[in-house]
Every structure is written in C-alpha cells, then in structure tokens.
Design brief:
3 domains, Adenylosuccinate Synthetase, Chain A, domain 1, four-stranded mixed sheet, about 30% helix, binds inosinic acid, alpha/beta, globular, about 425 residues, Adenylosuccinate Synthetase, subunit A, domain 2, Adenylosuccinate Synthetase, Chain A, domain 3, ten-stranded mixed sheet
Length: about 425
C-alpha cells in the first residue's frame, strides 16, 4: 500500500496546497482527481507565492510526476495558460505531467452557460459558482454527450460529436437567453490548438498509476474543494458538481482502495465558505472581518471575500467519518492569535433538541452550541514545535482533537514550508 490522500474537511480553501507541498517531498506521483479550474491552491516557497488551479501543486518538485486524473474537468485554454505561466517561472513542467485520456474537457459554451445561468437565477436559486463551467461540463459527462481528452485522437468521430453538441447548446441558449455561445469552428480550432501543444501528455493514467504503484512508487491523491462542497455529502444544492471526498479519489484516479494507506483531512483552525449556502458558525460581527483580513480570506480563483466563522467540530467529525480520515492537519492556527476568547461549535440543536450528527438537510435551521476557549493573545506564526505553543493554544488544539475523534498530526503556523509542527507518534 503506498497511496495517501489529502481531502478538505470544510468548504474548501483549507490550506490543502501547503500540506500537499509539505508531503510531496516524499512522494513520486501526485494526482488531481476531481474539480477543475474552480480550485485555487496557493503554495509559498522561499517567500515566493505560487497559485495553481488545474496543475497539481507538487509540480514544483522537479522529480515528481503530476497527473490530471480522469475525474477532473479540464479547460484546455486555462490549462495551457497555467502551464505557460509555470514554464515562464522556470518549471519545465511538460516533462513531468500527464493528462488522463478519460478526463472531460470544458468547452467555451460550458463557461457561457454557467455565467448566464448564475446571472439569470432567481433569488434563492443562485449557487455562487466560480463560473468556470464546472457543473455544466459534469452534466454533459453524466448525460454521455461530453468530449474527453482521448477523443482528440479520433478526429472523424470527434468532429461529428462536436457539431451535434454545439448545435444543441446553441439551441438551448437561444431559447433560454436569446444568445448563441460559440460556433463549431471556434471549438474545433481551440481543441486542435490544445491537441497540438498537449496531445503528447494524454495517456491512460489509471494504467500508468497502477503500474507505478506495483513497482512501489508513492502516490499522493490531491483533492480540490472540500467535503462540505461534495455533490453527495455536502450542503446540496450549494455544492460543486464532483466528489472531493475519498470515494471520489478512487473513481477519479482509477486506483484501487487497497492502495490507500493514509487519508489526511485538512481543516482550518476556523471555518470559511465562498458562494451561497448554509454556514452555521458564520460570524457576522467585526471578528469575521478580523479573520478575513488577517487570514487573507479572499478567493484565489475569483477574488471574492470568503465568509468566515468559528471552528465547527460537528462538521469536521462528519467529514472524518465520510472520508475515513486517519488524521487531521490543522492549518492557519496563527490567525486566531488576536482573540481573548475563541468559540468552538460543539453541537447543533433544532427546537431545543440536540442533533445526533451533522444533518444532510435543514442545516440553515440549526442553532449552534458553542464552548468558549481562552485565547493566547500572542503571535505564534512560524512556531514549529508543539511544546513551544502557548498553553492556551495547545489546549485549543487538544480540545478540538478530542471532539473530532481523530488525531491531529500536523499543525500549520504560517504559509511557508518550515512553518509547520509535526506531532510524532
Ligand atoms: P463551482 O464549483 O464553480 O460550480 O461552484 C459551486 C460552489 O463551490 C460555489 O459555492 C463555489 O464558491 C464553491 N467552490 C468551487 N470551488 C471552490 C474552491 O476551490 N474553494 C472554495 N469554494 C469553491
């Protein structure tokens, strides 16, 4: 067994990229298994910031092979832009990157439809998507009309399928919004350009991964978004259209469960959310703004301010369960240093009755039960030994650990690689 998995336990933006970067030094192959350019993964190395949307963040290790798995929806234009940017920064990434021949391609009309649908939705219907065409492309996948990377090798059938698809989308768009999205030729030209530049990267990645795992190579599966945004286990309908949870990692990469050794859940020491949807521990007073400012809580993909809230043990305990997490990584604990008291959500009630677990419906109706923990009121940024943390901070971590019922093994005290505490067994 030599695969491990990194999965978000909240609504995304938990700081997964820093953890992936930290773990990558012992990893041979990294796989993105779901989502698309809606993700924004930020890594800081030697004071320089790198933001990844589609390419796995481990690409900055020169000997790590990176894979865009079959579960991803890949935007060809965006992909080439991101790759070119990385090459400009000095990373020869085309030598260490593969794309699954089964991953679905985001075409221009997917993005147009996403934008128009959001703009024209009635109050209460808006999801607050990233407008990257994610849900629309996954719908085509499920409808069995999507275009996959491997289809680019089949020129004749590809042309016919694109023609049918573009006609169908334009018809829908004219009926609904009175506009056409694009022409058949535009789509074909974009795909041809992508194929000419990246066609050599497209392979059967499931076969490749299984072959390498058999040889003893170590694989890291990189989740985007988080459990709260999972299409099955998240706060539906305010979710993304894929499965960030651990089952999605298996389906989206094509390796067997038997290879999975560790499931790292990633969680901020508080909670954030972007887009619409219920958020029980959301803070509406000035404390929310304090966290947003200090934690730079603005979307890496859209720049939107993130909604901020206190740590929610009900949510993270639920995430640990549905993902089979073996341990938790707690990030951004340094951001909480300002507060005299730090509320932690320890349970939910509806009509005075305690809920047994995180609910799969009616989350907007819950009343949160909080326990207030004393703050530490001192800067802890960069501390890399648990014993050097103030006792109040140690207690905050231990208290959370007890409630979520899985061990906290890594704590991040800043964005840099070295600003990390590892708790040895
Ligand atoms: P979509 O994935 O663009 O369809 O957006 C659906 C929901 O997921 C919206 O609420 C987005 O704000 C949210 N979302 C998508 N990607 C991310 C992410 O990487 N971090 C946080 N929220 C995300």
């Amino acid at each position: 067994m030599s695969a491990s998995l990194v999965v978000g336990s909240q609504w995304g933006d938990e700081g997964k990229a820093k953890v992936i970067d930290y773990l990558s030094k012992n990893i041979d192959i990294i796989v993105r298994y779901q989502g698309g350019a809606n993700a924004g993964h930020t890594v800081v190395v030697d004071g320089k910031e790198y933001i990844f949307h589609l390419v796995p963040s481990g690409i900055i290790y020169p000997n790590t092979v990176c894979i865009i798995g079959n579960g991803v929806v890949l935007d060809p234009e965006y992909f080439l832009e991101e790759c070119d940017g990385l090459v400009e920064k000095g990373f020869p990434i085309y030598k260490q990157l593969f794309i699954s021949d089964s991953c679905h391609l985001i075409l221009p009309f997917h993005k147009t439809i996403d934008e128009l649908r959001e703009a024209n939705s009635q109050p209460g219907e808006k999801i607050g998507t990233t407008k990257k065409g994610i849900g629309i492309c996954y719908s085509d996948k499920m409808n069995r009309i999507g275009i996959r990377a491997g289809d680019l090798f089949e020129e004749d059938s590809l042309k016919a399928r694109i023609k049918t698809l573009v006609d169908r989308k334009n018809e829908e768009l004219v009926k609904l919004y009175g506009v056409k999205a694009c022409t058949y030729q535009e789509v074909l030209d974009k795909l041809k350009y992508f194929y000419d530049r990246a066609g050599h990267l497209i392979i059967n990645t499931s076969y490749y991964l299984n072959k390498e795992l058999k040889k003893g190579k170590r694989v890291l599966l990189e989740g985007a978004q988080g459990t709260g945004l999972d299409i099955d286990f998240g706060t539906y309908p305010y979710v993304t259209s894929s499965n960030p949870t651990s089952g999605g990692a298996i389906v989206g990469s094509g390796i067997g469960f038997n290879y999975l050794e560790k499931v790292y859940g990633i969680s901020k020491a508080y909670t954030t959310r972007v887009g619409e949807g219920p958020f029980p521990t959301e803070i509406f007073d000035k404390n929310g703004e304090v966290i947003r400012k200090k934690g730079h809580e603005y979307g890496a993909t859209t720049g939107r301010p993130r909604r901020c809230g206190w740590f929610d043990t009900e949510m993270v305990k639920y995430s640990a369960m549905v993902n089979g997490m073996t341990e938790l990584v707690l990030t951004k604990i340094d951001i909480l240093s300002e507060f005299d008291k730090i509320p932690v959500a320890v349970g939910y009630e509806i009509n005075g009755k305690k809920l047994e677990h995180f609910p799969s419906h009616g989350l907007e109706k819950v009343k949160v039960v909080y326990e207030e923990m004393p703050g530490w009121k001192t800067d802890i940024k960069g501390i890399n030994e648990f014993d050097k943390l103030p006792s109040e901070c140690q207690n905050y971590i231990k208290y959370i650990e007890k409630l979520i019922e899985i061990p906290i093994k890594i704590i991040s005290t800043g964005p840099g690689r070295e600003e990390t505490i590892v708790i040895e067994d």
